[in-house]
Amino acid sequence: MKQHQARKRFGQHFLIDDSVPEAIVRAIAPRRADNVVEIGPGLSALTAPLLGRLDALKVIEIDRDLAARLRQAYPPERLAVTEADVLDVDFSRFGPALRVVGNLPYNISSPLLFHLMDYADQVRDQHFMLQREVVDRMVAQPGDADYGRLSVMLQSRYEMEKLFDVPPEAFDPPPRVVSAVVRMMPLPADRPRARREGTLSATVARAFAQRRKMLRRGLGDWAPHVPWERLGIADSARAEELSVAQFIALADALDEAGALGPPGRPAA
């Protein structure tokens, strides 16, 4: 079988250091019957050790040549290949208690993380390798320079832990950045949550659009609708100072006031 050339348009960087997938598999600690879906299996660097611990594995691969290689290398009862753009995949088709893993393409990492939020109720956990800068943003806390929209939205739905860094030389071709592995555990049903997710998303997006401005300015025409004192938020505060719980309270207050439209209608 001829050597596969990495395709830039798919953001392909293939793992060549065996110690990295071994460390990822140890972190996942799969059991034989677990319902695991791997995103972007590529040349099977992670696929092979996963299959060594699982009865069967599902994978999603956009590259038709790599999908064909996978079908040739593994029997269908052990490896089910979905050939598709992962951003178009309905994860509900894979069943409950999903364990999602993958070396995610850097060029779609944020859109993919938001796409997967729609299926968090059926996910047990997620283990991803991403650009370290993205992982640092995911796990950042209020007041951190990396704290922003990605931090708030993902932390409203997951408990997350950065596990370890992966150097560029672990890949072929080597990326220009350091990577990192993160664990994401969906929060339980009784977690603090906004009345409407759309309102929370819109509020966080507007608050961080001009993150250096005080919230009363950054929120624009929504600011007069905010009961600052009742929420315990100073109107001089900046978005990066608010906790996830405070953003939820802020979004609910804006929703109650109809700042984004009549209550009960989807947020813009």
Describe this structure in words.
This protein has 268 residues and is of the alpha/beta class. The chain has ten helices and nine strands. The protein has a seven-stranded mixed beta sheet. Strands 1-8 form a two-stranded antiparallel sheet. β2, α2 and β3 form a beta-alpha-beta unit. The longest helix is centred in the C-terminal third of the chain and has 14 residues, at 244-257. The radius of gyration is 21 Å and the shape is elongated. The protein starts with 13 loop residues before the first strand and ends in an 11-residue tail after the last helix. The model is unreliable at 1-11 (pLDDT under 50).
**Percentage beta strand:** 15-25%
Enumerate the spans where pLDDT stays under 50 for 5 or more consecutive residues: 1-11
Shape-level CATH architecture of the largest domain: 3-Layer(aba) Sandwich
Secondary-structure-derived class? alpha/beta
Q: Output the helix-strand order.
A: EHEHEHEEHEHHEEEHHHH
Amino- and carboxy-terminal Cα gap: 51 Å
Would you tell me the overall average pLDDT?
91
- Total number of strands: 9
| Named CATH topology of the largest domain | Rossmann fold
Q: Tell me the major beta sheet.
A: 7 strands, mixed
Number of helices: 10
Radius of gyration (CA) equals 21 Å
Q: What is the helix content?
A: 25-40%
Overall shape: it is: elongated
- What is the CATH top level name of the largest domain? Alpha Beta
Tally of domains: 2
Keywords: Cytoplasm, Methyltransferase, RNA-binding, rRNA processing, S-adenosyl-L-methionine, Transferase
Binding site for S-adenosyl-L-methionine: 13, 15, 40, 61, 85, 103
Function: Specifically dimethylates two adjacent adenosines (A1518 and A1519) in the loop of a conserved hairpin near the 3'-end of 16S rRNA in the 30S particle. May play a critical role in biogenesis of 30S subunits.
Main location: cytoplasm
